[in-house]
Amino acid sequence: MAPQVYALSQTPVTSHAFNADRTKVCISLNSNEAQILSPKGSEWVVNETLSEHDKVITSIDWAPNSNRIVTASQDRNAYVWQETPDPETGKIIWKPTLVLLRINRAATYVRWSPKEDKFAVASGARAIAICSFDEENNWWVAKQLKKPIRSTVLSVDWHPNNVLLAAGSADLKARVFSAYIKEVDERPSPTVWGSKLPFNTICGEYSSPSGGWVHAVGFSPSGDVLAFASHDSTISIVYPSGPAVYNIRLPALPLVSLTWTSENGIVAAGHDCRPLVFSGSEQGWQEAGTLDDSKSGGASGSGFGAGTPGRLKSGAFATFRDADVRGQSSIGGAGQTDTKLTTIHQNTITSVRPYEIVNGEVTKVSTSGVDGSLVLWDTNEVSAITGRLGAAHLR
After folding, report:
1. Which residue, 94, 99, 133, is CA-closest to 116?
2. Which residues contact 211 (CB under 8 A, 6 or more apart)?
3. Distance from first CA to last CA of the chain, Å, rounded?
4. Do strands 33-40 and 25-28 pair parallel, antiparallel, or not at all (unpaired)?
5. I want to staple 229 with a disulfide (CB 3.0 to 4.6 A). Which of 91, 177, 186, 255 is the partner?
6. pTM of the predicted protein model
7. How far apart are CA 191 and CA 176, in angstroms?
8. Residues 166, 303: Cα–Cα separation, whole Å
């Protein structure tokens, strides 16, 4: 089945999140507003605009059961949006509730917990705000995970037990924290990450293989395995009970987002402009191919760039390569090269999210990117990457 491609905007889609039945999607177009879109024919049209933030919205998440949206922004705030009848007109509107994050730098990433009674907000303040609802005062309050974070937190992901939280940071580390809140959570059962879990307990800390920012983190469906992607063009899979860490080095540009599709499969994407598929088990992991079946990976060629992926195969890259290596420039000349990429996404993929789940496995994923596109991919449609699998280093 061919990917479904929707050109939403001429500006970057910084974040997207679907509602439970996939009839609506909430997106941010690199601005201080979030838009709720619904399908109309072959297009997605704007239904409502959520306007409360002062600066760019960095992340969005939509709780499937409670139908609440949470947005995080560079203005250091988060808002929880809930459908409520307007007291004057009776019309159903999205009402915002401000969350007191107590951070002095931008909020960078937000995710609801599995039970939807908490959410985690990463920030540039070297802290993660764990937010829960205070029934007595009717507001959202935050407790902060701080130590030993030494730089901006770039991503978070919840463990299925609703207590453990993985975080990737610009201090070159992926960590697993306990976000246990006594007033909210039941005492969790022991896991491979530990049994005693007071708030801010460090249950695991892992370094990027070559010292890169950790852009993305994710627990496997069971919660027993952690994956993280770094700016050194690696993806790492951690088995804490092993202990074993598998690092796959990519001859491509860095990944910035990932999602597990099953206990043995991951889809990740980033600056290379196409989703890559990884498969494996506790015995080892490898790059299995790509969901983008364009001909870029299998194109014939020789010399520098042959068999390379996505953006490294583009005319734009060839132009800069020639200028750098050979001192040649075709910009503006008769020999000007085509700058269109051979991938479906024409710029960095900023987010990969599960779209359809059947029998506990993700059968479709959605991606959004700097090119303003939203694409739905069938995870079973994996194309081999000619000349690349042998280049992926596993250790």
Report:
1. 133
2. 172, 232
3. 34
4. antiparallel
5. 255
6. 0.89
7. 12
8. 41
